[in-house]
Structure formats: structure tokens, C-alpha cells
Amino acid sequence: MQFDRERLDALMQAMGLTPTEIEERLAFLRITESDLNARDVIESALDSAWIRNEPEFYGHLFRFRETKDKLLDVDNLNRLNEAHRDYFKALGTATFSRDYIQGRLRVGWIHRQIELEPKWYLGAFSFVFEHTLPEIWNRCQGDRDAVLASIATFYKLIQFDITLALDTYFFVEQQSTRRAEDQRALAHHALESSINGVFMVDMREPRCPITYVNPAFERITGMTDQSALGLPCVFESPDQKPLTDNPTLFEVQKAIQAGRDGLTLLNGVDHEGQPFWIELFLSPLQGDHGEVTHQVGILHDVTKNKQAEHQLKYQATHDALTRIPNRSYLDSALGRAMQAADRDRKEVAVLFLDLDRFKVINDSLGHSSGDELLRQVAKRLQSCLREQDLVSRLGGDEFVILATQLEANTAQYVAEKILVTLEPPFEIFGQTLYISSSIGISLYPNDGADQDELLAFADAAMYSAKTAGRNTFRFYASGMNAAVREELELENDLREAVERESFELYYQPKLDTVSGRMVGMEALIRWHHPRRGWVSPAEFIPLAESTGLIVRIDTWVLEEAVRQLSAWKKLGQALVPIAVNVSAREFASGNVLARIEQLIGRSGLPADLLELEITETTLMQDVDGTAPLLSALKKLGVGLAVDDFGTGYSSLNYLKRLPIEVLKIDQSFVSDIGTDEDDTTIVSAVIALAHSLRMKVVAEGVETEAQAAFLKEQGCDMSQGYLYSRPLPADELLAFWRRR
Ligand SMILES: Nc1nc2c(ncn2[C@@H]2O[C@H](COP(=O)(O)O[C@H]3[C@@H](O)[C@H](n4cnc5c(=O)[nH]c(N)nc54)O[C@@H]3COP(=O)(O)O)[C@@H](O)[C@H]2O)c(=O)[nH]1
User: Is the pLDDT of residue 328 over 90?
Assistant: First the structure.
């Protein structure tokens, strides 16, 4: 520490050492002018005593442990040595000036700083005193009065000096004590007002009681200091029975018992059943010999942070609508399930579930009904599965069920159970809804080796279940993926095409076999796919049928065909009937009659210009149910033809009961005319039998002159085929028509 003038001035002022005070001290010691006369003797005696005895002085100091310890520190030694020299030099001069006074203060201050107690300081003085007296004796040359006067002066100077040094020593000590007390008070205040709980455990006492807790500790643990203080932190029995019924404190005790230091996260459930999370910082305090005397613990309540963290985690892993796990959760759960299955030699089944026709429900009843349905589906799924199984939602109407720890061949029971569970009706905002679902199943380890693969395969199997007619399940089979994906893509595109009505209608002429005149035509749909080009109806019509889109397609075709007839009529063209294909679904929908009635009525065209081609298979599905509808259509004037005749359950007997007017011999028979004897015979027989039932016959797929000649010879009424014309766009058909 630097003893600069400024600090010494401040010290003097703080100690109240004003000139008046100094004078008072001198007066009290009765230091007079005569004393000042003796200063020369004393100064020179002191000087030579110091020079002669300095080594012995330090030798003396080194004989005592405490002084020796201080002097072993070279800095201390140098500082003392310098101070001593200046000090003794100045003592003899005794000017009592400001510098002189401050020199005395400096000595007291240094002793306090190096913590050399006054006893050593006074002792050292007596050493100097003892060695100075003979020197005074020598200088006074036996003059008794001069010796006594010098000794008296010397003694007074020492008194003045020692008093100042001791005053300084104690003043500085008092100051540092006060500072330490202030700091202690501040630290205590900080502890008491800390938002963190602080406690102290005495590790020297048996069972380590708590000896201090701050108010925040009381707030966090819910305990008063009276109930916490003295509570032991060491368990009596190894089974760690709670030493307190306070859950937080019990966790603290466990951490201390375990001798944990550093950071520990405690969590439990409080008295009100609420979960808590508390960070506990434990730091051991060591005694002089390195033994742990105390544990200081700091409790930081992080419950709110943890709750926020959990909330975020929950949101990241759960579906907001149904509150069941989402894709991210599923991924991790599937990973864990696969590991467990490896270990236990069990199976994991991934069941990909998609609600059938959910879009229709959503579009027709509104999104809130759709949302409610999804919530109820999630609940039902959860209720029908085992606890270890997982129901998750990927989005939309797609759910994935993870059935774990399965014995081989049991996944199908899970799928069946799910289908049955979804069978009973759902009550959605007062409406009763029946739904079904399609489920695809992939199995680990058989089908795939990672999560993505298993999900993709289950997804593919689900689409296979959809194309198989819905409300069913399918296991994944290799190759399913690509085919199903393609079909799915096509289905999506077809939906879009239906929405946008991006189809065209082509027309294939039907010619009178004898005259060659165009007596009718068949409307055939065409779809120009934006990427794939023309897609054959043979490809997309079955897909439209399985997805239900065929109903909207058939409606569009009917309307477009009637619109085109009206357009030709406006052009002054003498009209011929137009035949339109009607799918089994449309036929079964119950709307055909009303729709056609409305259409014909609106167009003002005669009903007999419209002919419906219904496949033989469709008709045979429900002859009794179909008959009234056909009769009503017939009554309306609409023509009815059996399409693809000969490919289904051919029974003219049944046909007799239906008001059919035309039979279209399937092109597979026509193409074999002349090459396959059986098919040639069938063609002849069909023509003869149809005529016997007063029906007309159309041969479709006529491609060669030989086929045409044979049909003419057999009396077939009409022919249709590439030999005459391919299906044509409306304007080209008109040109063909006009030529005939
Ligand atoms: N519900 C609806 N079904 C429709 C509609 N349009 C067509 N279809 C059905 O799709 C299947 C395939 O039809 P398409 O590719 O149009 O084939 C038709 C003709 O192009 C084809 N045809 C005609 N002449 C010949 C020929 O000489 N050779 C040859 N190889 N093919 C020929 O035959 C199909 C006519 O079929 P059909 O209806 O049985 O008379 C088909 O099953 C269509 O029915 C539609 O709008 N709605």
C-alpha cells in the first residue's frame, strides 16, 4: 500500500490529529523547551545504537515465530527495514512537524497492515531503548543531571511516538473491522433479499442439520425457518425415507446425502400436486485442514422455465387439433420401438390410416365439423389400442398407429379392431356421420429398415387398400410403392381435371351396315393430361369408378353430349341419336332418371336422341332393381343399349325382362370374326337371338372389310369401328357426318 501524503492527511483528519490535539498531547507529556535541548544527544545516541545493533535487532525478531513469519516475506522485511530506519532517524529530531507526525502514523499503519500486533512493536521499542541508554550515558560523560534529563526526554518522545503509533494501529483496525462488518451486513442483506433460496448445512454435526435458511428458501420450499432449521440432511436408513414431508426439502436432502456438488436439478410434486423444478447449486466449504465443514446450497426455482420448455416440447411433438403425438414424436417413438423389437425379437407394425372420403365431409359440412370428426376419431383410436401402442396424426385425415411388441401375424387383428372401432356413427354437432377408413400396414423388421421406409410402405399399402374399395386394410407388398404412387398421382390429377372439367368429348359414328349412312354416334370422353398427354379412358375410367369421381364425369359427359346435339341442331344438322356410357355407380346412384329428365327438358330435344349404353355386367348385378329404372327411362323416350355384350353373364332370358332395344356385340368377338370359329359363331348367334327379341344389334370394333362383309351378311344392323372412323372431335365428326 502506498502511504502517499493524501492518504496520510486523510488519516490524520479522520483520527482528529489537529495541531491543537498535537499540542495537547505534547503538553500532557510535559515536553518543554529544555527537552528539545536534549534532542541532539538522543539523535546521535539513537543513530549509533541502531547502526551497532541493527543485525542483532533483526536476529532477535527472527527468534520468534510470528515476527519471523512476517519477515520471511521479503516485501514485508524491506518495508519494515525502511520504516525502522526512517523512524529512528526522525525520532531523535522530534520536530513534531506534520511530516514527523505522519511518519509515526505510517508505522502504526504498516504494523496493522502486516498484522504485527502491538506487543511486538512495543517489544522492539524496548530493545532499541535498552541499547540507546548506554549511548546516552557515553554522550553525557557521567554528568548525572544531563543523563537523567536526556533519558526523561527520550522517554517522553517515545511515549508521544508510541501513543501515535498505537492510536493509528487501533484506528486502522477499527476501520477495517467496521468495513468487514459493513460487508458482512451487506452480504447478509443480499442473502436475505436474494430471489434464490439459500441454505447452509453444518457437515460437522451428526446428521448434518440445516443451520441457515433465507426468506427465499422459505418461499420456495414453503417451510418457515423454524421448521427448516435443525432438520437433518443425512438419512438414517439406506432406503432414504423422507426426513421431512416437504417434497422440495426431501429432494435437497437426497442431493446432500449423495454428496453431490455443482448443479443438480430437483423435481417432484408439491403438496398441491403441482410439479416443480428447482436447480440446486451445492458448494462445499472447507475448513483449515481441507475437511468439508459446511454445504452451502442455492435453490433456484426454474418451474416456470421448465413449464415453458415442456410446453414448447409438447407443441413440437403434438398435433394441435387432436392433442395426440405428431410426426416428430412418431419418428422418435418408432426408432425406439424398432430397437426394442430387435432386442425382444418382436414385431412393430406401422398402420397408416386414412379416412375414406373425408374431403367430402369437410367440404360439405364445413371445417369445424371436419375438425371435430378428427378429434373424435383420435379419441376412438386411442381407446381401442393397448397402452404401449401409439396413435399419431400426420396431418389432414392421416393417422399412424404404432403397434409395438407384437407377436408375429397379429398386426391384422389390430387393423380389424380399428376398422370395427370406427364403424359406429359419430355425432358431430347434432349430425350423425358414418365413416370408414383404409389402412396400410408395414412391418418391422420384415418390410423396412428405417422409419421413413416403413412409413412410406405403410402409406403405399394404405392406397392399395383404398383402391381395393376402401374400409379395408392391406399389408405392404414389394412393388406396391411405385404402382400405388403412380395411381395416387393420377387420382389427384383426375380430381383436379374433374374440378376444372378439363375433358373433351369425342364422337365415334355408328353406320347402317347396309346403307353405310351414319345413323348414330357414341360419345367417348378424352382427357389430355398436362404432363402425360392423352390418357386412355381405359386407364382413368376404372380409377374414376373406384374413387367415385365417375358420377361427376358421367354427368359432365351427359350434359356435354346434349349441349353438342343442340349446337348441331342450331347448325341445321338433321340429328341422329347420341349414345352415352353410364357407369354402374351412376346407375346405382338413383339420380339418373331425374338428371336425364331435367337435361332433356332443358334442351328441348326429343328424348329418343339420347341413348344410354349400360354394360352387361352392370345390368346383371341387380336385374330386379334395375328393371323399374330402365322402364322409366324407356317411358321417357331414352334409348337403352347393352354395352360389351357377351363379356358378362350373357342371358337373353334376363334381357327379355328389361326394356332394352340395342345390343352392342363386344369388340373382342368382332375382332375374331373369320379367325376364331367360336367367336364367329357367337356373333351370328347374338345377331339372330337379338332380332328374335326385336332388338337391334351394333357391332363395335369393326376394323376390316372382311368383318364388315360378314356382319352385313349376318344382318347386323349397325357397325362402329376404325374401319369407318376413329372417335373424332365434334367439328371433324360433323364433316364426316356431312359426307355420309
Ligand atoms: N362411363 C364412361 N365410360 C367411357 C366414356 N368414354 C369412354 N368410356 C369407356 O372407356 C373405355 C375405353 O374407351 P375408349 O378408349 O374411348 O375406347 C372406345 C373406342 O375408342 C374403342 N374403339 C372403337 N372402335 C374401335 C376399333 O375399331 N378398334 C379398337 N381397338 N377400338 C375401338 O372402343 C371403345 C368403345 O367402348 P364401348 O364404350 O364399350 O363402346 C371403354 O370401356 C368405354 O366404354 C365415358 O364418357 N363415360
Answer: yes
- Residue 237: per-residue pLDDT: 60
Query: Three-class SS string for 120-140?
Result: HHHHHHHHHHHHHHHHHHHHH
ipTM of the complex: 0.93
Beta-carbon count within 10 A of 525 CB? 21
Give the separation between CA 248 and CA 236, rounded to whole angstroms.
19
Report pLDDT for 650: 56
Bridge partners (DSSP) listed for residue 478: none
Tens digits of per-residue pLDDT, 422-451? 999 999 998 888 899 999 999 999 998 889
Taking the CB of residue 325, how many other CB atoms lie within 10 A of it? 21
User: Residue 494 CB: number of other CB atoms within 10 A?
Assistant: 21
Residues pairing with 613 in the sheet: 581, 641
pLDDT of residue 649: 55
Three-class DSSP labels, 695-710: CEEEEECCCCHHHHHH
| CA 103 to ligand 1 centroid distance, Å | 124
Ligand 1: centre distance to CA 701 (Å): 9
Determine the Cα–Cα distance for residues 13 and 16; give it in Å rounded to an integer. 5
Question: Residue 462 corresponds to which cell in the numbers above?
Answer: 394404405
- pTM here is 0.48
Q: Which residues line ligand 1 (CB under 6 A)?
A: 508, 522, 524-525, 536-538, 541, 554, 557, 581, 583, 613, 643-644, 667, 700-703, 720-722, 727
3-state class (DSSP) for residue 2: coil
Output the residue whose Cα is nearest ligand 1's atom 33.
Answer: 701
Nearest residue CA, atom 25 of ligand 1?
701
- Tell me how far the alpha carbon of residue 557 lies from the centroid of ligand 1, in angstroms: 13
Q: Supply the residue whose CA is at minimum distance from atom 18 of ligand 1.
A: 524
243-272 pLDDT per residue, tens? 677 777 777 777 777 776 778 888 888 878
CA angle 436, 441, 444 (to 5 degrees): 155
For residue 136, give the nearest of 152, 147, 128 by alpha carbon.
Answer: 147
List pLDDT tens digits, range 641-663.
999 887 765 566 677 788 999 99
> Relative to the CA of 666, which ligand 1 atom is closest?
39
SS3 call for 584: helix
| DSSP H helices in 258-357 | 303-317, 327-344
Using the atom order of ligand 1, give the atom closest to the CA of residue 643.
39
- How far apart, in whole angstroms, are the C-alpha atoms of residue 395 and residue 399? 7
Q: Using CA positions, which residue lies closest to atom 16 of ligand 1?
A: 524
Of 213, 183, 185, give the one whose Cα is nearest residue 199. 213
Ligand 1, atom 20: closest residue by C-alpha: 727
Q: Which amino acid is at 326?
A: N
* Residue appearing with cell numbers 538522543: 42
As given in the structure block, the three cell numbers for residue 429 are 354437432
> For residue range 619-639, what is the model confidence (pLDDT) as tens digits?
876 777 788 999 999 999 999
pLDDT at 86 over 80: no
Please list, in sequence order, all residues whose beta carbon lies within 8 angstroms of the beta carbon of residue 650, skipping any fewer than 6 positions away: 616
Top mean-pLDDT range of 111-120, 122-131, 322-331: 322-331
Q: How far is the CA of 672 from the centre of ligand 1 (A)?
A: 18
Q: Report the C-alpha dihedral over residues 114, 117, 119, 120, rounded to 10 degrees.
A: -20
Q: How far apart are CA 76 and CA 110, in angstroms?
A: 9
Residue to mutate (ligand 1; options 539, 540, 581; most atoms within 8 A of CB): 581
- The residue whose C-alpha atom lies closest to atom 32 belonging to ligand 1 is 701
